[in-house]
Amino acid sequence: MVSAPPTQPVPRRVADPRLRRVLKDDAHKLTAVGGLAALSLDALSSVAYGPEAIVLALIAGGVGAVAFTLPVAIAISVLLIVLVFSYRQVIAVHPEGGGSYAVAKKDLGRGASLLAAASLVVDYVLTVAVSLAAGAASLASAFPALAPHLLSITLIGLAILTVLNLIGISESAKVLMLPTFVFIVCILAVIVFGLSHPTPVAVIGKDLGPIEPVSALGIILVLKAFAAGCSSLTGVEAIANGVPAFKTPAIKRAQHTEVALGILLGVMLIGLSILIKAHHVVPRGDVTILAQLSAAAFGTGIPFYITNVTVALILGFAANTSFGGLPVLMSLLAKDDRMPHLFALRAEKPVYRYGVAALAAFAAVILIASGADTHRLLPLFAIGVFIGFTISQAGLVKHWFCARTPGWHWKAALNGFGAALSAIAMVVFFSSKFTEGAWLLVIVIPLLILLFGRTENYYQGVKRELELDELPTLTPNPPDQTPLVIVPIDDINKRTVQLLEAALHLGGEVVPVTISRTDQKAHAMTKRWDQWNPGLELVVLPTAHRSLVTPLVEYVKKRQSDGRQVTVLITEIKTKRRWHQILHNQTGIVLTANLIDRTDAIVANYPYRMN
């Protein structure tokens, strides 16, 4: 007897993990590095306008007040540390994603969760608009000929990002990895080379002359600078919102990405603020603060242009953060019955395409309405995310008080401190920007809350209407009432034969029906039918107004009048190439829609596939 050769074990190091990843859709999800590129560009790119926002706020107190840029940046970095540790906890407690929305829903109740969701939606949409507009403006600063075409540039950038994310977030992350790496290297190089020069290598921009103080340097001005600089923190929550987009183990990968983001952002923010103080940088005409710092570090040679073009690209790509976060948030809202359920549907790759399309549409409307003007968008920007910060911190405070896990006192204190800082920044930012356009949020956010609430109420009403009090006994058709299958036809051909054969297989009485616009066509159809003689009686329905719909609907209603079950079997041609489909009339679609709306018949579609 010959024994069978021993079975070779499956190599676990390669085969098993790949199989598990495929089964879990991991093949198209993010690594930690990919997550930094796909979900963190909003926060990282904010160093292009965050330090500048601090300087522009402080300059109201005079040139000397700009020296407070570094202390303000340090305070913002403290808040950044608090937020990073907080969102690491959010990721661990809520791996399903959702960020402040998930925290509020679990720990603070319905009202807070709706407020968090509305503020996040606003922030994500504005992130796309602001990032693309700022990127276009930076690009136009390097190439002045593009200045008249800012709106077109932003819309083209929006279209590119939309296509990338419809293909799949993993693919978009791969595209963004190289620009992200170059951007980080450029900013760090600006800091290192800038600190190595005691005086600027070059000074660019027009001198605006003596800058007179228009406000006293006090706590209010410093708070305004702090709130303005906190725009650098937008996007910190996106990783927590997009945890489901990471490869397994998603929690660890997302937490590592959050920490990496915090370290990079903190180093760049403080480093640039040190340079602002060291080189006495103040606003100058037609150039950004970051452009001045890069000129001070490199001069106006090739590294200067590489840095500023990279900044322009990254500002545009920063919009990708929203494409990674908002569709996931919208899917969670849909699963909670607070948005239409189609937003919870995914394509073959793990992409919420309806969410991506909705985000692109809203961002396009805002860009067109604002003319892609960054200054018109900034007053609305960042307030939504501060609301989310405050809610998520407060929710975690309650979570730790309820859970009382080891070390909960310190965790609750940390989150309480973060909630207080976020709330202060939110109030100061909102009050200082109210007359500049922030008042719109007083309208938009309540409208979104109303929309979410009304949608939830509708779905609850649907559930109540469909709910069974008790399981009923099914009653079959009476023996003397066989089911009736009505088959609309317009000719005698292969499609007709297949359709009638399918109807006969359904059982019951089969009635072929044709709708004739003229007596001549009715006579010709009847003559051909009699020649064929399939054993079924053809019913001819005349139409006085050349309408195919009304005669069929009235006939179906008539046959239903005795309580009989009626099924209408409608054929539709399915072409091999999609563009061929438009060459056929859509009669089947029209008949189906009208029969469903105007009768109680069962409507079934039979596809006839063309080769």
Automatic annotation (TrEMBL):
Gene Ontology terms, MF aspect: transmembrane transporter activity
Locations listed in the record: Membrane
Gene3D superfamilies per the UniProt record, alphabetical: Amino acid/polyamine transporter I
Membrane-related topology note: Multi-pass membrane protein
GO cellular component, one term: membrane
InterPro entries: AA/rel_permease1 (IPR002293), APC_K+_Transporter (IPR053153)
Chief location of this protein within or outside the cell: membrane
Keyword set, alphabetical order: Membrane, Transmembrane, Transmembrane helix
Transmembrane parts of this sequence: 55-85, 114-140, 146-168, 175-196, 216-239, 259-282, 302-330, 351-372, 378-401, 413-431, 437-454
PANTHER family xrefs: POTASSIUM TRANSPORTER KIMA
Protein name: APC family permease
